[in-house]
Specification:
phosphatase activity, elongated, six-stranded antiparallel beta sheet, PPM-type_phosphatase-like_dom, 5 domains, hydrolase, GAF-like_dom_sf, alpha+beta, Beta-Lactamase, PAS domain-containing protein, 34 strands, Heat Shock Protein 90
Length: about 900
């Protein structure tokens, strides 16, 4: 049954992927489904990317909440783009690192169910995530594990089935039991099981094998004495049953203790509809007896209850539990009672703390007086604890943690208490490991969602400063309390502090001042986090000096602020500080510094996530650097192609407006120039190279410089253009044809101006007379860069006072909106309204008309050159 529904549509643009993730996250969190948010966000991100990026269509996203789970549908408008299938009908997605198809691969890995549906106009890809707290038909389950993490067993697992009657006598002994213990069935049937069982006489436990056989359900360890006299440790599961006549008996399943994973599972209390309340006894499972029922669902709750029960069981003053890191070289404090937990949480101690049996967390240990062996238990230094007992938590022989109970008085514990605590640790080790793996899987899925969004944010900008800010904001406070980024300009340069961020804004200035005073960390290209003590040492030294200086002033002269600021900075950087190299394209381009406040340490999972983030951030930062460098080079080269400062022409108003098409382009295929040739004579030009972009700009530079050089050598207009034509043809395959209007201008003493112009394939210049009439000021001639032999000629035009000469490129006349085009007639209509205007006003009105002609911005280069001879009253 559908209980809620939400839908949204996203346009085929890159930013829609982030918007879709936000929509799904907000929707599921609004429904209170935080357990499945991360998986849903990751899957939605991939599917929407396929739709809006790869398919290039609008994406419709629908979230549907039902009784059993959430279904998310992503539809695109490209139904003919089918999902690739193998010939045998099985799905084939290819390699997970390929550009496309990863969304389906993730659906297969993360979703409970998924599929593809086609309609005439849409393709729907959907996935369903079932609620984790409603495992229909599941009694117990664990996360999917790689083969290397699965428990080890013999190739042929033998399960001994032993049935014991109400009198405790063996009635059934199967072949596997005979293979395990060496007794044929006829030798043991009719004998008490207690004759074969070697029950562990562990102090503090009162249950024996005879009592266990009377319980409705029991699971645990004991030994069976074999035919050879040796005791084989077994793991057993007992179930009390009755036959059709009501006669009770107990079925015992036995496996070798090292293969306990075959039978071991968390117990559940019997439900009211299957067991009569009068027949149910108290909870008897060893795990539930120690932890209590129901057991906490979360790892932290389970660990906290474990240390509290361990302390109470041994009447201790404090208890703590540590979990091993992946390499089993360190133990991380995860729960404690009676100790400063805020300081100890996530602190690390080495597995091998010293030499000998009592220096290793892999073996039980009892310390009667810690004052006699200072530092034997690093975690208890300066806590007032005198005696301690510690035992390992092991699963399949692998160290997974350590449990300790401590007391303030010496000689409180002996080997007897160590055995009791070890028995309890054996009961909870597997449950703790399962909860730890579940938490790790949840964290890794959350990390995947975090990295997806981080990668999207980093890829969304090519601005260096913004990339630095994003790097810091993504780590604080998610991964660290404070962050600093050092950048390296080149191999010969020292690292430079580029960005500092603290979760408390009031600490940023003090932290930045501290880091500016100390040497940056050493550049190490190898990956991985490494410790850095520089900030801690410098901050505490500064705080000490400030405190001593404050004391030396005396109470009357002491500054009102005291050493507070220095102490606050020292506290902010007093915890663990790690350095992560920023390596891109096999070069160290910087360092990412992450820090914790006093006595806090990083979790291994967060360091691994930070390393992954640093690799992505390094590439984004290097991309921003390359983009900035190339943009600066491009802009410098483009500026070199633009004319220098425009000269003043006596007696003539000149206005130029230039617009290059394309973001970041200052020069394109259109160009202009105005320059002095000799005394009293000026050259002007406006041209258009075929195409836009850098290739066209190269020809632009050739043309502009050639015009100046040839004109100043004394060549007339036709000779200048003919030689330029030959130079363009000499470029060979790189040559491009060019339309060009070139002219020479001579201001006259009577207030007029004489122009000699050559129009080589360019839009004709328009002359606006003072009476409002408009006429072409030149005749069309062949363009440049096409034919080798050109015969050009120049025409003379006289501008009287009040006349305007307008020269434009085809970016003006070919301005389009749909099938409409401004054209020559449209330009003439605009120029008609310009009578009496200055040259600047004429150029501005033409530009405004071009911009208003269509809603979309111009897509072609555009140049406007207006020259006007002012009337006597104007001057």
């Amino acid at each position: 049954m559908i209980t809620a529904r939400a839908a949204a549509t996203f346009e085929p643009v890159g930013r829609s992927v982030a918007a879709a993730r936000t929509f799904v996250r907000d929707t599921l969190q609004g429904w209170g489904l935080t357990d499945i948010v991360d998986d849903a966000v990751v899957l939605t991100s991939e599917l929407v990317t396929n739709a809006v990026v790869h398919a290039g269509t609008t994406a419709d996203v629908v979230c549907i909440r039902a009784d059993t789970g959430v279904r998310v549908e992503v539809a695109d408008r490209y139904p003919e783009r089918e999902v690739p299938l193998q010939s045998n009908g099985g799905h084939h997605f290819g390699h997970p690192d390929r550009e496309g198809g990863r969304g389906l691969l993730l659906c297969a890995a993360l979703a409970t169910r998924w599929g593809v549906e086609y309609t005439a106009t849409h393709k729907h890809i959907w996935f369903q995530l079932d609620f984790p707290d409603r495992p229909a038909g599941t009694r117990a389950a664990g996360p999917a594990l790689p083969s290397s993490a699965l428990p080890i067993a013999d190739a042929r697992v033998r399960v001994g089935v032993v049935q014991v009657d109400s009198g405790g006598l063996i009635s059934v002994w199967n072949d596997d039991a005979q293979e395990l213990f060496g007794y044929p069935s006829e030798q043991v049937v009719g004998k008490p099981l207690t004759d074969l069982a070697a029950w562990p006489h562990t102090p503090g436990t009162s249950t024996g094998v005879a009592e266990a056989l009377q319980l409705s359900r029991w699971e645990g360890s004991y030994g069976i004495r074999g035919a050879d006299g040796r005791v084989s440790p077994v793991y057993a599961s007992h179930l009390r049953i009755r036959d059709a006549e009501g006669e009770p008996s107990t079925v015992c399943l036995l496996v070798r203790d090292r293969e306990r994973a075959v039978l071991q599972s968390p117990m559940r209390a019997a439900s009211a509809d299957t067991t009569d309340a009068a027949e149910r006894g108290p909870a008897t499972d060893a795990f539930e007896v120690f932890i209590g029922s129901p057991a906490p669902d979360d790892l932290d709750g389970l660990l906290q209850r474990t240390v509290e029960r361990a302390r109470d069981m041994l009447d201790g003053d404090a208890a703590y539990l540590l979990l091993a890191t992946d390499d089993e070289t360190e133990l991380e404090v995860r729960a404690s009672t009676g100790l400063p937990s805020a300081r100890q949480r996530f602190a690390r101690v080495p597995v091998e703390a010293g030499t000998g049996r009592y220096g290793s967390a892999r073996m039980p240990a009892v310390h009667e007086d810690l004052s006699a062996v200072p530092g034997a238990v690093p975690l208890l230094v300066n806590t007032g604890m005198r005696s301690v007992v510690t035992v390992p938590l092991k699963v399949e022989g692998r160290l997974t943690g350590s449990l300790g109970v401590a007391a303030e008085s010496p000689a409180r514990y002996s080997n007897e208490e160590a055995l009791r605590l070890q028995f309890a640790a054996d009961r909870i080790a597997l449950a703790v490991e399962r909860a730890r793996l579940t938490e790790l899987e949840r964290l890794r899925r959350g990390s995947l969602s975090f990295l997806v969004e981080a990668s999207d944010l980093l890829a969304g900008t090519l601005d260096r400063d913004q990339t630095l800010a994003l790097m810091a904001q993504m780590t604080v406070p998610t991964l660290a309390s404070w962050c600093a980024v050092y950048t390296v300009a080149d191999q010969a340069s020292d690292p430079e502090l580029s960005y500092v961020l603290h979760e408390d804004e009031d600490r940023i200035d003090g932290l930045k001042a501290l880091l500016m005073k100390i040497d940056p960390p050493e550049q190490v290209p190898t990956g991985g986090a490494r410790s850095w003590s520089g900030p801690y040492d410098a901050a505490h030294a500064a705080a000490l000096r400030t405190s001593l200086r404050s004391l030396s002033l005396g109470d009357s002269a002491r500054p009102s602020s005291g050493p507070g600021a220095s102490l606050a900075t020292a506290s902010a950087v007093g915890g663990e500080t790690v350095v992560l190299p920023l390596v891109a394209r096999n070069r160290v381009i910087g360092m990412l510094i992450l820090g914790k406040p006093t006595d806090e340490h990083f979790r291994q999972e967060n360091l691994e996530l930070a390393e992954d983030l640093s690799r992505r951030a390094a590439l984004a930062l290097d991309n921003a650097r390359l983009y900035s460098e190339r943009t600066a080079i491009s802009q410098s080269l483009q500026r070199s192609l633009l004319p220098p400062e425009q000269p003043e022409v006596p007696g003539v108003e000149v206005e130029v407006i230039y617009r290059a098409a394309g973001e970041g382009n200052e020069v394109g295929g259109d160009f202009y120039d105005l320059f002095p040739i000799r005394d009293g004579a000026y050259g002007f030009a406006i041209g258009d190279v075929c195409g836009t972009g850098p290739e066209a700009a190269a020809v632009t530079g050739l043309a502009r410089h050639a015009l100046r050089l040839l004109a100043r050598e004394g060549f007339g207009g036709p000779a200048v253009l003919e030689r330029l034509n030959a130079a363009i043809l000499d470029e060979g395959a790189r040559s491009r044809f060019l339309t060009l209007l070139y002219g020479e201008l001579w201001p006259q003493h009577d207030g007029s101006a004489v122009l000699k112009v050559v129009c080589a394939g360019h839009p004709l210049p328009l002359r606006l007379r003072q009476d409002g009439s408009i006429e072409a000021a030149a005749e069309p001639q062949p363009l440049l860069g096409v034919m080798e032999d050109l015969e050009l000629y120049e025409q003379t035009v006289t501008l009287d006072p009040g006349d305007v000469l307008l020269c434009v490129t085809d970016g003006v006349t070919e301005r389009r909106e749909g099938t409409r085009m401004l054209g020559d007639d449209g330009l003439i209509d605009v120029l008609t309204t310009c009578t009496g205007l200055t040259a600047g006003a004429v150029a501005a009105r033409v530009l405004r008309a071009v911009e208003r002609f269509a809603a979309e911005p111009p897509s072609d280069d555009m140049a406007i050159l207006a020259m006007r001879v002012p009337e006597p009253a104007d001057s």
